[in-house]
Specification:
heterodimer; A: 274 residues; mainly beta; 13-stranded mixed beta sheet; 4-stranded mixed beta sheet; 3 helices; 36% strand; B: 563 residues; alpha/beta; Urease, subunit C, domain 1; 22% strand
């Protein structure tokens, strides 16, 4: 297990693609300190910005674990492209956490910046604080979003969570911002609390489940039925009843938007259309 | 400065040199008979292939549509970027690279002359600004004239000579090089939401047919003695069954050709060689097109080969781009350029496992292999429509090796594989034929006198590739061929070594070539014309022309016209 402590409060963004268990694996402390890292427009060594500490665990597990203690909210791209191992962070994290990761696990006890889990293909990201905008969304302009894996947020998420999603699961136990599942094609998004609006805009497939208040459903969605419960994952079903809407009709598609009946009495007029 | 390339194996098809060991002497940016060996800088090219610098007849590298493509595709840039070096600027881009990166990447591959094929005359200034910023290569651009209102009006009235005067004025005013025609008539029809579906359809309002436009501009081209032929993107591009339209287009100017000279260039021919009635039954029409081209001297083609990658399609063919958006559902841009043309951009991904894309890939190669005379067909990807130009070495490998083709055939859609003509084609091109298809033939078709050959007096644009044609068997070692063409051992531009083994050594500015067409009676800019500018264009006449001092390095070519 490798512990990293930021030496100072960063003024400039730090690009830390090297904070990746795949890269740390089998390296000594000196080698890890020698990894290159960018601070602003200067290339530096990891050892210059972080205190590196190796701790021997009793169980010599195969997985490499990186633990980061402290505020790294200016540090970007932690765990990008990782395929296995674990990263645990106690503190706030910057943008692009776990970008395009393929496996392994990232746990954050703090808040996370934008584009967390951007374009991930596998693995798990657990966020015990709030997530920023574009959770699991692709790079600007790209239409190849999340393609697998799981993102769990125990706090709130920002706008455009799960945009262009193609596979996988996003669970948000707090509230979500606007445009949840924008243009998503497949996969599942579950929002336990309220959703700001425009959920599922231009979606062409997949499933969005809103367990809280949703002010209005986009006019391009039609009501299909009322369902008793919804499956989120294997062995995980949420009790309803839920209104099931299909859309987005502007895309000629039938994505599924579930909205909890109990919290949304203002949507009851849709029942007349059933 | 003097330069001597020693002991290289020379391929210079224009002068009939086929793999002979010779020295090439260079003085002051020109190729000369000999130089003093003691004084000159020597390059040891023993065991290497020496060819004239590459010429690309059709690649979208500058102008408003390319720049809009750049804006549209941040995701295209962020995986492919280049850091600055002491000699080069930083840049980004895979399918639509920054201007500087475009120049550097071409130079690394041994290319020294490139042609930007579609410039709406209204956007001429923008195009030239970007061309000025494209270093390392000489370049020129073709104005889009097939749907310009003046052309349509004069051709409708049958005033060929008057039309020729206006075309001459336009080429010189916008600093263009050739007449580009895109979907003749269709773009004007697109202004009112329609298209034309054959070369005998009427264009709304003007009452003229694509056939009349093509024939008219072909006659104009001849009257003006332009070095290149008309450069045509056919009607019905990218639609199943359009090989018939392509054949009609070639046939319609058959009688206008003289002395065995080409009269028409059909560009990115692969995109107009589809047989079949819909996308499920689409097949390659390469055989029919190749048969026609083999029997007629008046046509030259370029391929527009498809590469299996992510790219950005951009043409002036607005209706085609709109239908492409319908197919992909991807983000898109469409635009009507006032009285002149239209344009569209759609990002696109060619997939091996898609039946249609695999057929397109196969069609391109079939065209190249079935057209017997390499002087009639040139290698392009219609960058970036079929794929970015950085993949040219891959196409060369496919041309030279059946094994390379079979390796890719195995990976493509099985239904497309079974319908492909490639397994029945044993032809493998030689280095000599590659030199024709990638430089000599293109330079000849473009009428570029100093380019594409290594004879005395030619521009000293030379590409040296680290591959020995005497010892290597390209049909087996196709990967070695590909590697060698990816990064030229030396690229010499204007007598200076600009790139070596994939590294840029020197930043040089290339010239912008343009035609100064001299007609005996130039058109007079009347008040009437200015009034029309005021009424139909968003710019005043005074702001329209591109003056010569607008060009970074101007290289005018004076042409005496017959009118």
């Amino acid at each position: 297990m490798t512990n990293l402590y930021p030496i100072k409060e960063f003024r400039f963004p730090v690009i830390a693609e090297c904070m990746n268990p795949d890269i740390f694996q089998g390296k000594t402390r000196q080698e890890i300190e020698g990894l290159t890292i960018w601070e602003g427009n200067k290339q530096k060594k990891l050892g210059e910005l972080f205190k590196v500490e190796e701790t021997k665990t009793e169980h010599q597990t195969e997985r490499t674990t990186i633990a980061i203690y402290g505020d790294v909210s200016k540090v970007r791209r932690i765990g990008a492209y990782m395929t296995n191992g674990e990263i645990a962070i106690r503190g706030d994290v910057g943008m692009h956490l776990g970008e395009e990761m393929e496996g392994g696990k990232i746990t954050v006890h703090g808040n996370v910046g934008r584009w967390a889990g951007s374009m991930i293909k596998g693995g798990t990201i657990e966020i015990h604080g709030d997530a920023g905008d574009y959770l699991g969304a692709p790079y600007r302009g790209s239409s190849r979003g999340m393609r697998g894996g799981k993102i769990i947020v125990y706090g709130n998420a920002g706008n455009e969570a799960g945009a262009y999603m193609r596979k996988g699961v996003i669970k948000i136990y707090g509230t979500a911002g606007q445009f949840v599942g924008l243009r998503m094609r497949n996969g599942t998004i579950y929002v336990q609390k309220d959703c700001e609006g425009r959920a599922g805009a231009c979606m062409t497939g997949g499933k969005i489940v809103v367990g809280g208040f949703l002010e209005s459903v986009l006019p391009t969605f039609t009501i299909e039925s009322v369902k008793k419960k919804v499956k989120i994952e294997e062995n995980e079903r949420i009790e309803g009843p839920f209104y099931l809407f299909l859309g987005d009709l502007t895309e000629n598609s039938k994505g599924k938007l579930y909205v909890l009946k109990e919290k949304n009495p203002h949507l009851s007029h849709y029942e007349k259309l059933l | 400065m003097e330069l001597l390339i020693k002991n290289g194996i020379i391929y210079d098809p224009i002068n009939g040199v086929n793999g002979e060991k010779m020295d090439i002497a260079i003085r002051d940016g020109k190729i000369v008979e000999n130089v003093k060996e003691s004084k000159a800088l020597k390059i040891d090219a023993s065991g290497m292939t020496v060819m004239p610098g590459g010429v690309d007849i059709h690649c979208h590298i500058a102008g408003s549509e390319v720049n809009t493509g750049r804006l549209l595709r941040p995701e295209d840039h962020f995986r492919d970027f280049e850091r600055k070096t002491p000699n080069t600027r930083s840049g980004v881009g895979h399918s639509v690279p920054s201007t500087f990166t475009t120049g550097y990447r071409y130079a690394k591959m041994g290319y020294t002359t490139i042609m930007n094929p579609s410039m709406p005359p209204l956007e001429a200034k923008h195009t030239h600004e970007e061309l000025n910023d494209t270093p390392m290569v000489d370049k020129a651009t073709y104005p889009l004239l097939g749907d310009w209102w003046f052309v349509l009006e004069y051709l409708k009235d049958g005033k060929i000579e008057e039309c020729a005067r206006y075309v001459a004025w336009m080429i010189t005013t916008t600093k263009g090089y050739a007449i580009k025609i895109v979907n003749p008539g269709g773009l004007e029809a697109w202004g009112s939401g329609r298209n034309v579906s054959s070369i005998d359809d009427q264009v709304p309002y003007f009452g003229i047919t694509p056939r009349e436009i093509l024939r008219g501009l072909c006659k104009v081209n001849k009257l003006l003695n332009l070095p290149h032929t008309i450069h045509v993107h056919t009607n019905n591009l990218g639609k199943p069954g359009n090989y018939l339209t392509a054949l009609d287009t070639m046939k319609c100017v058959e009688d206008l050709a003289s002395e065995g000279k080409p009269a028409i260039h059909i560009t990115h021919c692969q995109f107009c060689a589809f047989k079949g009635s819909d996308w499920r039954t689409v097949k390659s029409g390469a055989e029919e097109i190749a048969k026609y081209v083999n029997n007629h001297p008046h046509v030259t083609l370029d391929i527009g080969q498809v590469i299996f990658t992510d790219t950005t399609t951009m043409t002036a063919d607005g209706p085609f781009q709109y239908s492409l958006y319908g197919l992909t559902g991807n983000k898109w841009v469409n635009h009507d350029v006032e009285t002149e043309t239209s344009s569209g951009i759609v990002p696109f991904r060619y997939r091996r496992k898609s039946y249609v894309h695999a057929i397109q890939w196969s069609t391109g190669l079939e065209l190249a292999l079935l057209v017997k005379d390499p002087w009639k067909i040139f290698m392009t990807t219609d960058h970036p429509n079929g794929g970015p130009f950085i993949y040219y070495p891959r196409i060369i490998a496919w041309f030279m090796s059946k094994k390379a083709r079979e390796a890719t055939l195995k990976k493509i859609n099985p239904r497309a594989e079974s319908r492909s003509l490639l397994p029945s084609t044993d032809r493998e091109l030689s280095f000599y034929e590659i030199a024709i298809m990638t430089r000599a033939g293109q330079a000849k078709a473009l009428g570029l006198e100093g380019k594409g050959h290594l004879g005395v007096g030619a521009d000293a644009d030379v590409a040296i590739y680290a591959i020995n044609p005497e010892t290597i068997d390209p049909s087996k070692k196709y990967k070695t061929v590909r590697k060698a063409f990816e990064n030229a051992a030396y690229t010499i531009k204007g007598g200076k070594i600009v790139a070596k083994k994939g590294e840029i050594l020197k930043h040089v500015e290339g010239a912008t070539m343009w035609l100064d067409v001299q007609v005996s009676e130039p058109i007079r800019i009347t008040e009437e014309m200015k009034r029309r500018f005021r009424e139909y264009w968003t710019v005043e006449y005074e702001n329209y022309p591109v003056t010569e001092n607008y060009l970074g390095v101007s290289h005018p070519i004076t042409i005496k016209a017959d009118v």
